[in-house]
Every structure is written in C-alpha cells, then in structure tokens.
Amino acid sequence: MQKVIEKAGKAFLTGNEAAAWAALAAGAEIMFGYPITPQNEIMHYWTRLAPKYGRGFLQTEDEISAGFTVCGAVQAGKKAFTATAGPGNTLMQEPFSMAEAMRLPLVAIIQQRGGPSSGTVIYSQQEVTLTTFGGNGEGHRIVYSTASHQEIYDYVIKAFNTAWKYRFPTFVLGDGYQAKMREPLVMYDPEEKGMEMVKPYPLVGLEGKIGEGREPQHLCNIYSMEEELYEVVMKFAAEYEAIAPEVVEYEEKNCDDAEILILAHGVVSRAADDAVKALRAQGIKAGYFRPITLRPFPGRQLREVIAKSGAKKMLIAESAYGQFDRLVKQEIYGETIPIYNLFMPGVGIIDYDIVNKVKSIL
Amino acid sequence: MVLPATPKSWYLPTKPHKFCPGCGHGIVLKALGEAIDELGIQDKTVFGCDIGCSLLSWNFFACDSIQTHHGRTTPVMVGIKRARPELITIGYMGDGGGYSIGSQHLLNAAVRNEKITVILVNNTNYGMTGGQMAPTTLPGQKTETTPYGRDPEITGYPTKGPEFVAALTSDGAYVARGTVSKYKQLKRFIKNALQNQIEGNGFSFVEALSTCPTNWRTNAQQTWSFLEDEMEKYFPVGEFKSPLGKGEK
Ligand SMILES: Cc1ncc(C[n+]2csc(CCOP(=O)(O)OP(=O)(O)O)c2C)c(N)n1
Ligand code: SF4
C-alpha cells in the first residue's frame, strides 16, 4: 500500500481533514458514508484523496446502509470505516449492534451535533449515551473521546488497530467544534513511528477449496435458544472486561492535593484544564480528571484519584444534560464524594463557566 | 412600488423567504401556494417538510405545517392522512430526502397508493449539506462527493423518480414531472396532484426540476442553461399517470 505521509510534519487543518488523513495513514481501504453536518468534510477530503492512494468510497442511500456496508467490508477483510453525527448516529445503531454481536472491527468517527432529533448542526456532547450504550446490546464497544486535532489524528489511527486487535466496534467521538476548527497538529506515518499496524483478515471469501482444506463459514447473530445467546454474551462480556485494562486511557492533572476535582471529557476537558490553572492561580486547589476512553471507562483510576486527593467535592461539566454524569456515577457507585454538575446541553463550555461554577459551590 | 401578488396561503411574516437567490424552491412553493388558493383547501391542508433546503419552508405557508426528519416526511404525512382522511396532506422534500434516505417510504407509500400528495424538488444535489451527490446527480456532474465527476460505473445512473413511482402505483395514482422553467405547467401538475387527493383517487406525486446556483456554482445564465439543456434532456417533463383525464406527455 502506498505511503501517505512520507515525512512527519506540521499541518494546520480542520479536524475533519485530520480525520481523513489519519484514516488514509492507518491504511483504511474504503469509506462508506452519507452526508451530514458537521461530518461532511471527512467525506469531502476522503473523496478527493482516496483515488490518489487507490482507496475506495461509496456514498450510500442512508446511514443504515453506510453502517451495514462497513459491516460487510470488514467481514470481507478490508479496513473500512464510516463517519456520522446526530440523527445519522441514531440510524447507525442498527449496524453498530450487528458489529457488536458479530465482533466486527467497524470504525466510526462521530462528530457530535445538537440533539435530540435534528437539533443543531453545530456542536454538543449529547451522543455519549448513544455511542457508548446505543443499540440493543450491552455496550461492548470502545469509545475514544478526543479533545484536540492531534488526538483526532492519533486516535483515528489507533481506532483501526484497536478494532482489528480486539474486534469490538471502535468509535472516535469528536464534536462539531473539533470537526470544523483549524488547529496545528503533526501528521506522521504510524509505522515510521514504530507503531505496528494490525493486519486485517477476512471472515468470508477465504482461501482454499471448501471440503478440502477449509470448511465453509457460517456466521450468524441470531440464536434459537436463550442459553446459546447467554453463552455468547457472557463470553463477550468476559473478553471485554479482560481487555479493558489494556484499552483504558485517561488524563489527570493536579489531583494529588486537590480539594475539588473537575471531571470533563472531549473538548470540554480543555476548558477544565484551563479552569484548573485559573483556580490554582487564585489559590483554589483544583484538579482535573478526564477519561479518554468512555468505554471502557477508567473507573478504577478515578476511584484512586478520589482517594489519593481526599477531595471534598467533584464537579462534572459537559455539553449535555447529564449523559457523562450518568456514565461516571455508574462507574464509581459507592463513592460518597458530593457531586455537582455543570450541564450545558448543546452549547460550548469555557474555563470561565467552570471557574464560576466552582466558586459557587466551594 | 407594486409588488408581485403573493398567494393568499403564504404566511407573510416569513417573507421574503430564506432560499438563496436564484433557487428554484421559491418557484415551486409559489405554484403550490396558488394551487392551494385556487382549490380553497388552505384550512384543511397539513404541509410537511423534510430536512434539506425544503425545511426552510417549515413556516412558509399560512397552513398547519410540520417539519419532520430527513427522509421521513412521507410516513409522517401517511400517519396524518390515515388518522384524519378529511385533511389534505402535502409532503415536500428534496431528491436526497425522497429518493435516497426516504426511498423505502416513497416506494411503499406508492405501492399502497396512499392518498397523500408528495412534491419532490430535484436539484441534482444535496443542497442543505453543501452540495454532495444526490441520486439525481447527472453523469459526469461534479459534486462534493464526486469531485472528479459522477461515474455511473461506480454510483449508477440518476434515479428517475416519476418513472419508478408510476411503475409501482396502481389505478388512481397521479404522477408527473414539471420544471421551474415552465411555471404554468408545473402549477397545473401540482394542482392536479392535489385535486387527485381531494377526489381520494390514490397516491399523487410531482417531481419538480429545480435550480441550486449556490452549489452548482453557476451564474444566472449557466443556471438556466443547466436546467433547460442538461436536466430537462435527461429527465423528461410531463404527466406519467393521471386518472383525471388524458395524461400529457
Ligand atoms: C438521518 C440524517 N442523515 C443526514 C442528515 C443531514 N442532511 C440534512 S439535509 C440533507 C440533504 C438534503 O438534500 P436534499 O434532500 O436533496 O434536499 P435539498 O437540500 O437539495 O433541497 C442531509 C443529508 C440528516 N439531517 N439526518
Ligand atoms: S443551497 Fe441550493 S437548494 Fe438550497 S436554498 Fe440555496 S440554491 Fe436553493
């Protein structure tokens, strides 16, 4: 496969453009997509670039089809992906759930927009519940919540490896701000950097003659007996829990002596980081904790931070009405630290909002 | 200053409308407004619009109006009609909404001969999302997702909506394709489609060939020539099916 990035270098791009380059650099062979703001430019850049590197694209008739074509392509052994947002993410829950049920290494980039329904085309963090636990399944998915263009680039590349290594559908959860803003980042070839890219392999269309040397493949996601399904789901759950410690990622700053912990994810964690600096400059001992993986969630690490800091209060800030908050609470069940909220559904949060909120609760 | 007469069924506080200059949506909606006026159905009409540039018409008429989801206008209108058959329901959508994401609804509503009226604007692209390929994009036409021109080998040939709706519907259906370049004819087709619903004959469908200078990146002359020379050649204008008398081809 033709090298996409010859030499690592700085670039100044939108997040959507960074995502398209990252998918190319990761060796994605085909994208399936349906237009929706604020994801469109991932497709626009991909359709311009892909033919130059011998990669494919199909604009499907809707998101249901985009998701299922990705399911088919990965079963055929190709690194395939899609990108969507908002109501498109809703429609993709059906194929995402097939990917969960059949352990398909589907990769999807989600650029969250306002909801419910058509909402806004701009920004939100309101697709957390849908992306982590959507569909009629158990949330056996891996979800990276990015905060910068560098992370979009890094985690889109990583998502392909994670998906193909562990075979759980893998999501890069961005948002409209990250999609449309321009920001500097370094683009690189992952293998030049020493990253080993996991090789894709097919589940159907295998080498060899059936009956001589290979058996026919019969893949299914429906079972006749309750017990059969039970076995499957329990096996997935055990495997998911076993790999979780390797997959979990988080970031923590200034937590050791914090009297108040600020929790945020995605782009809001940048505001939280700035707020911590501002609060510390004013003599308020604030610390910040940010899960990078929302699934699996760094629950143990968060409990440790609560314990070691001895913080008296915790503030959860998000551009949604409590979706992240619910995720955190279910993960730290039993902790007694008082939790406060800053819920701003569908609008941006800046350091100022967090600083004010912290002062109002201290 | 004498302003051109506006249909009585237009909702004046939302005028001037918000479509781009040179957009065909306004012309289609004017024809629809005049047809509603002439048939005297303003008070019992429910207008439903899709997500797409058609959504800019959510408060366009002084009629009860509902904005739905992208592609889902047809089933919402079917629901209203099934619940209240005395109402006149009009689904208004783009070619992406109708032929792509909502195609299963269009197909099944046509097969069931649902007694609703669907007006679909064909501007050969996805207007609202910034000009991607639509099912109606012409071979060779450049869009944001066919930057090197639409290749029928990869994406097939443009959808011919009225032709497929005509093939699927049974007796009583009304199917036509008009164009914003022939206003009187377009208005007649739309009026027929509403009359057909009033008579309770069957599914009524009008595709309107329309302009999108913003995404075509065309000036006035190029816009009109793309419509009349390219689109109207590919998509024949006329009535495909009419229980109201003889169809005009
Ligand atoms: C489920 C879903 N997918 C995608 C979108 C994004 N979207 C909004 S409008 C639109 C296309 C509009 O094109 P068309 O239907 O042709 O109407 P036009 O704007 O050209 O009038 C799309 C894809 C959406 N709102 N919902
Ligand atoms: S983008 Fe195109 S279809 Fe939409 S309002 Fe403008 S000209 Fe009309």
Automatic annotation (TrEMBL), chain A:
Keywords: Oxidoreductase
Domain Pyruvate:ferredoxin oxidoreductase core: 258-342
UniProt-recorded Gene Ontology molecular function terms: oxidoreductase activity
Domain called Pyruvate flavodoxin/ferredoxin oxidoreductase pyrimidine binding: residue spans: 22-199
Lineage of the organism: Bacteria, Bacillati, Bacillota, Clostridia, Eubacteriales
Organism expressing this protein natively: Thermosyntropha lipolytica DSM 11003
Protein name: 2-oxoglutarate ferredoxin oxidoreductase subunit alpha
Keyword flag Oxidoreductase: yes
Oxidoreductase recorded as keyword: yes
Pfam families assigned to the protein according to its UniProt record, in alphabetical order: PFOR_II, POR_N
TrEMBL record, chain B:
Domain Thiamine pyrophosphate enzyme TPP-binding: 60-207
Leader sequence segment: none
GO biological process: cellular respiration
Keywords: Oxidoreductase
Pfam families the UniProt entry points to: TPP_enzyme_C
Coiled coil regions in record: none
Entry's Gene Ontology molecular function annotations: oxidoreductase activity, acting on the aldehyde or oxo group of donors, iron-sulfur protein as acceptor; thiamine pyrophosphate binding
Protein name from the UniProt record: 2-oxoglutarate ferredoxin oxidoreductase subunit beta
Organism encoding this protein: Thermosyntropha lipolytica DSM 11003
